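Next comes the chain:
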Amino acid sequence: MLCGASAPITVTVVANRSPTVALTAPGNGSTVRVGSGTNLTATANDTDGTIASVQFFANGLAVGAADTTAPYGAVFTPGAEGIYRITATALDNSGAATISPQITVLAVIPGAKGADISYSGNYQGAGESGRFAAINVRGSNATFIAFSNTTPNRVYFFSGLSVDTNGGFSLFDTVGRSLISGSASDTGATGTLDAGRLTFIGTISFGSGAGIATGYYTGSITGRPESVFAGLVGADGTITIYVSDGTFQDAGSGVVSTNGNFTVTTLTGTRFTGRADPATGFITGAITGGLGGSFTAAISSGVSFSDGFLKNLSTRGQVGTGGDILIAGFIVAGEEPKQVLIRAIGPSLAGFGVTGALADTQLQLFNGNTLVATNDRAAVRNPPSTRPARSE
């Protein structure tokens, strides 16, 4: 009997690669309602195999059954108020598992006092018509942006409107003329503008899985400390932008994509191209036409927890020299990296009737005894690890 051997071959054994998984909805920092179902969605991929299942978790407890078919999803119905940390775990056909980055949502009781409620609709009167967007921040204050569809540069912007216990809000000029008057509820917002010349009516915006936190974003145009940039992101994924600098003002609306990108073109042709970052709560972008330049804004409404979200804190005090300088302290807590915007306002206060305002503000940011950033309006010096510090 004759025997033979085949030519040798080489077999390379490689370890199984774990799958990848990412949550796509709801957006990090979203507000959900107790007793109402919220859609959780995720994407998952496996480069050397297939996805066997994706399981969602809220505060470590499984949400429904594992989903074995893309697109992967589950319905989360919080039973109590509080903070819920959501993750998704992907399992591949070889048994390898990967946990997604965590997002955090706040569950609140239904009602105008429980959460930020966004609205959108139309206004008209006296031969003029346009669109508006508004947000009622936890039943305490409201911001309103409207722009004409027929008259370029005719816009209406009101922020920090006090909301009473019945959802009513109003603002008058110095001679008692009504600038805006209306009310907001769980179903819609109605009212009048410009001493009753215009009537607005709109409905509540419902979630569309856009992945961006609903809220009021406020900031300015880079290098123009007197400017105002404001953005209202609705629960339906729309964004309405207002900008002003001196006598210039403009506004328009568009749609935010699932990854936060948006383009807004106003009636005058001014174009805003940018991104709302769902992880940090910051909006950045560029302006083409009109004023030109770039802009930065941060969410100043929204959830009542700290991880990853900027909250507004302001103080006013007498500022002297030497031992009489104004020192303000704050603590940044939580496990996630934070972006912080700090402003020292001086000359711009004169426009609000404040007397004795500083003519030239200087701002220094310390971590303990270490100076990490400074701004004297002439130049900004920031180490790479710090965030903007602005003086105005």
Summary: The first strand starts at residue 20 and ends at 25. The chain has no helices and 30 strands.
